[in-house]
Each structure stands twice: as structure tokens, then as C-alpha cells.
Amino acid sequence: MNPDKAFLFLIDTFIDIYCYIVFARFLLQVVRADFYNPISQYVLKATNPILKPLRRVIPGFGGLDMASLTLVLLLQIIKVLCLAFFLIGALPPVLNLTIASLLSTAGFVIDFFFYAIFLQVILSWISQGNHSPFAALLDQLTSPVMSPVRKILPPLGGLDLSPMVVLLGIQFIKILFGLSSSAVLRALVSFS
User: Fold this and answer.
1) Residue 175, H or E segment
2) pTM to 2 decimal places
């Protein structure tokens, strides 16, 4: 039995799920998504208790919700601190914590788009022609990433290959810049 790893898995999972919700709220505002969508309403209700007080301290900048981004970064720092505590048994140096948190946040953002596009592909197979609030929201959230590729690679005979191209590009970027959980671990222990 390994209770430390099991507990760390739960912390990691719950923090990432809430980070996905908070980042979705940030993107909803960026893409000016339909806030009357039931999924959007859920995202608002799930994030308002923390973001409303945080917005008093961290104002928006250029129309961007900086409080949401700050909350995602803070949650990733908490995740990295938990990881360091369970793996190293002590708090990492500030430089290691900063690098590991930034790597974790960048990897999280890339994973967000990967999972959103992957879900969009699966939903397009399952519910062809059916209108789903979740599918409509995913389309709005992924449009900043998908639109440039769709301009270059239009659908061929009803088959849209742009999600495959974007998913391959996301994986390429993740591997190229080392944005994986092992990179976060290396950043934590490199100077310990």
C-alpha cells in the first residue's frame, strides 16, 4: 500500500478539476461565449465564491480576467507544494517552486485545450446533428486554437481534419518544451 501517492493523486486530481473550471471561466470571457448556456452558468456558480473576493484585490487588465489566471497559478503552486512535500519531505527553494509552478501551469493550459478538443471530437462522433449545450460551449472555447487551422485546412468532403492537426501540434509543443509532470518533478528536485 502507498497512501502517500494515493493521497497525492486525489489532491492533484481535485486541484486540476477546479483549475479546469476556473480556466474555462477565463476563456468564456475571452471568447465572449454564451453565458446563458447551462454549462456556463455552472462554471460561474462554481467559481464566484472564490473569484468575487479575489477580484477586489486583483483587477482585470485589458478586458482579461486576471483574477481567474491568478487563481489558476495559485492552485498550481499549491499542487506543486503538495508534490514537493510528499516527494522531498520539505519545501523546495523559491526558484525551484517558481519554475515548477510555471511549468505545471503551462502544461495545464496545454492539457486543457487537448482534452477540450478531444472531447469535442468524441462528441461529434456520438451526437452528430444533435445540439448539445456542452458541445456548443466546447466549440466556443476551442475556436481560438481551431480557427487558424481551419482556415488553412478546410473540411474535405464533410471530414474535418483540423482537430487531428491541432492535437498533434499540442503534443509536439508539450514534448518540445518538456511540459510534463516529469519536468515539474525535475524542476523541484534539481537544486534540492
Assistant:
1) helix 162-176
2) 0.86
